[in-house]
Design brief:
With 144 residues, the chain is an alpha+beta fold. Helix content is 34%, strand content 29%. The strands form 3 sheets. It has a 4-stranded mixed sheet. Strands 1-2 form a two-stranded antiparallel ribbon. It is elongated, with a radius of gyration of 26 Å.
């Protein structure tokens, strides 16, 4: 069972041929896994997943510092609310602006906030949140 394309009007013939070609292309193209946005390689250390090898290596360094007593209270993925969420007079909900630090810890009585950064990950959004964190909490992000 099928329809003879030649029996269709010219406009429908073109449409049917375009559809057929697109189906054949998608059937022959291999599906590939999407490459990470910043070309990072996710890694897992001690059952903890990290988005990059760089961040995983920094975690290992901080764990050694923690065991040596150089730092205390090491935490991963700590959220800082930079602006609270609110509802507009029209009833639209505006989400809060949040910065998620890769690592936070205490060294010699000072709270340190660290972010494992490469050049491509220093986006405009990150730089804006960095300024907001400095303004609201007086904390400067240490980039490693």
């Amino acid at each position: 069972m099928g329809i003879d394309i030649n029996s269709l009007p010219p406009a429908y013939q073109k449409q049917a041929l375009r559809k057929l070609v697109s189906q054949q292309k998608s059937a022959t193209l291999p599906t590939t896994k999407a490459e990470p946005k910043y070309h990072n390689t996710p890694t897992k250390i001690n059952d903890v997943k990290f988005p990059s090898i760089h961040e995983g290596e920094r975690y290992c360094e901080l764990m050694l510092m923690l065991k040596a007593g150089t730092i205390t209270d090491l935490r991963l993925q700590v959220n800082f609310t930079l602006q609270e969420g609110y509802t507009t007079p029209e009833g639209k909900r505006i989400r809060p602006i949040v910065y998620k630090a890769d690592f936070t810890y205490w060294r010699q009585g000072v709270r340190v906030v660290e972010d494992a950064k490469s050049r491509p990950t220093k986006t405009k959004t990150y730089l804006m949140k960095k300024k907001m964190l400095q303004d609201k909490y007086g904390i400067e992000i240490t980039e490693v």
